[in-house]
Amino acid sequence: MTVNFQYVNIDTSETLSALTEEKLKKLANKFEFLISAQVYFKHDEKDRETGKICNIELSLPGPRLFATSNKKNYEMAMTETIKDLERQLKKRKEVFSTH
Question: Superkingdom, according to UniProt (predicted)?
Fold first, then answer.
């Protein structure tokens, strides 16, 4: 699975990229049909409390899956987004297995 990163209004972080890629690889091992992932890390200036946004879009057979979260740091946002995607992937796998 290929993973593309985009950092919007923030500096690039190698450690954040490595951590995200590691978690996405675990997801790819569990769900073999994943093709690629687009990961966006953004900073929202208006939101003082949280404002650290992680968007992930997964490419796979059928419609793409998308999840986003807004937390007080990027690691928490990334973890929450991947949990959301995993829930969506479990539902998609159930649909695939019934046919």
Answer: Bacteria
